[in-house]
Design goal:
Blueprint: E1 4-8, E2 15-16, E3 24-32, H1 34-38, E4 46-58, E5 63-76, E6 83-98, E7 109-112, E8 119-120, H2 122-132, E9 143-144, H3 150-172, H4 182-189
Parallel strand pairs: 1-3, 6-7
Antiparallel strand pairs: 2-8, 3-4, 4-5, 5-6, 6-9
Length: 193
């Protein structure tokens, strides 16, 4: 039997009333944009656009959520600050146990209280997207929207290299240590005496 299909857009619709769902498979789909991330107080990507597909399998003692997240986000390159587009693709399976023992909970198992009749999956979706975000954002790992400014960075690094010998000379001008400390250093080097 094919899964029941629901298309959802608003945050309130991230609430799944599992108590009223029949046993079996149910499909959910969300389109996520910048307004979704604004409710969490931060938007790292410019123009984020994600599609989340979730299949919920309900059984008598648990539910299994299989999520697939596809989308894009625009970031600035860490090296040259040019805009680049990063494509996301992530899959995750989460087991939900209503009324289970809280000690069973971990990253892949969510335990709900016995009185729970609905599940808000917005936090789970947000966390999966954040974990999928690149830590290192540069033109080599994504699609740059403009030509990479590596030439600019090479010029910048060349100036840093030219300034580096000056810093070494300044470090050599450091005065000698106070001679009063020499006696203590001898004691430190030979603790037996």
């Amino acid at each position: 039997m094919p899964p029941n299909f629901l298309f959802m857009r608003r945050k309130s619709e991230f609430l799944i009333e599992f108590e009223g769902l029949k046993y079996g498979a149910h499909a959910f789909e969300w389109e996520i944009g910048p307004e979704f991330f604004e409710q969490y107080g931060e938007v790292d990507a410019q123009q984020p656009s994600f599609r989340v597909q979730m299949e919920l399998f309900k059984d008598t003692t648990m539910m299994v959520l299989k999520m697939q997240i596809l989308g894009t986000g625009q970031y600035d390159c860490d090296l040259c600050l040019n805009p680049l587009v990063r494509h996301f693709e992530s899959e995750h399976t989460l087991v939900v146990k209503p009324g289970g023992d809280e000690q069973e909970a971990d990253d892949d198992i969510l335990v709900l209280p016995k009185s729970a009749y609905e599940l808000d999956v917005s936090d789970v979706i947000y966390q999966l997207i954040k974990v999928s975000e690149p830590v290192k954002r540069n033109c080599d790992t994504a699609e740059p929207l403009e030509e990479c400014g590596k030439e600019f960075m090479q010029q910048y690094l060349a100036t840093e290299i030219e300034e580096a010998p000056l810093q070494e000379e300044e470090e050599n001008d450091v005065p000698e240590a106070d001679p009063r400390w020499d006696a203590l250093r001898k004691f430190k080097d030979n603790p037996d005496k």
